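batch_manifest entry 22 of 60
target: Translation initiation factor IF-2
source organism: Stakelama sediminis
requested by: lab member K.T.
priority: normal
notes from requester: please return tokens only, no post-processing; we will run our own comparison against the previous entry in this batch. if the run fails, retry once and flag.
--- input ---
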Amino acid sequence: PETITVQELANRMAEKGADLVKALFKMGMAVTVNQTIDQDTAELLVTEFGHNMRRVSDSDIELELDTGDDADEDLKPRPPVVTIMGHVDHGKTSLLDALRGTDVTSGEAGGITQHIGAYQVTLKDKSKITFLDTPGHEAFTEMRARGANVTDIVVLVVAADDGLMPQTIEAINHTKAAGVPMIVAINKCDKPEANPQKIRERLLEHEVIVEEMSGDVQDVEVSALKKTGLDDLMDKIQLQAELLELTANPDRNAEGTVVEAKLDKGRGAVATILVNRGTLRVGDVFVVGAESGKVRALIDDKGRQVREAGPSMPVEVLGLSGVPMAGDPLQVVDGEAKAREIAEYRQGVLNEKRTAQAPASLESMFSALK
Ligand code: GDP
Ligand code: MG
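--- output ---
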């Protein structure tokens, strides 16, 4: 049976080692933080502290930090998070820009468009939709591979004058594999040679059956250039979102995902975080991947300083110890010492992985020389 030291388990749970020792003592076990316990005892402790645990393999205990489930009555509706995918030159960037332009609050004083990897549009009825401003399949699959499933809905852009291309089909496959609902935006419908009906027929070959072909995938004809069909697309996104009944508990310590991160001259390490649940506030102490920090400032997609960010809201976070990776989870924890401890532990794991890989490549270098 696999074992783990009390300290290591405490680090993974973001709890104090001493608290675990106390709990173990109550369970009739006298151990120190440096001693090991078996997996069954570890599991017991994890549940005791109200955490959820995921067993990745028999030999590895992977913990999801502070992921106590939310009570149904605490769940509130949240905006959908949308990713736009499609073949190169079919109009992903143009459509993202056009949709961004429909924001009813964008004219408000002080707002300057900031490209922070995601943005939120407020519709006439005050409801919101979040778009990941990083079109492309790589971001989508990479984030998913890292366990970050931030996308609720995929909008597949297909140019009506071109048809299904390799990356269109790739996008369909990724979306299906992720089990994320898709809306087809048939773009460039302003062009005289546009043939939307041909697109719908070709989609059948890939088992994407749009409503007009009596299927259940919504489709909409748009022109990112002439800005037509955008309201219709927003309506369809909202309809899809309603079917998904997207909710989150806003009244808890924030959990989020890194959408992008960089080292900024003058501002230091900056990460765009998409809040998954809870509310992130200025002054919050957090762990993000193998980095930690304290929120010094929050900046929204219009460049305005905000005090807090709730579920599905993208926000730039200042006050990080270093640059995390896209897809890394962010968790608010109590206490800077604890945050640093967890980050250090994760740095250690990363370094171990790196050094574990090094001898293997050296070996292969030697065997190649033989
Ligand atoms: P991306 O590679 O998918 O991001 O595509 P872009 O947004 O960069 O667009 C590729 C080209 O198609 C650009 O020259 C756009 O101006 C043009 N384009 C995008 N949308 C439309 C549209 O609705 N109608 C027309 N006529 N051209 C468009
Ligand atoms: Mg583009």
